[in-house]
Specification:
Keywords: Coiled coil. With about 60 residues, this protein is mainly α. It has a domain of about 40 residues. Helix content is about 60%, strand content about 0%. The termini are far apart.
């Protein structure tokens, strides 16, 4: 499926048969995307832990 014109193309097509735009995604870009998604998930987890720590500190302050 072409991401630009939504035409159906043959499996493994590098160029859309309808609009002639490049539709192949280089392996290096896929690897970079996967790495960025992994880093994003790690940062989300770190942010979640930091929020929990802040919440715990705030609760301790209220109880004193």
């Amino acid at each position: 499926m072409c991401p630009y014109c939504q035409s159906v193309n043959a499996d493994g097509a590098l160029v859309c048969a309808s609009c002639a735009r490049d539709i192949a995604v280089p392996v290096t870009l896929i690897a970079e995307r996967d790495d960025l998604l992994r880093k994003r998930d790690e940062l989300r987890d770190e942010l979640k832990r930091a929020r929990s720590e802040i919440e715990a500190i705030m609760l301790r302050r209220k109880s004193h």
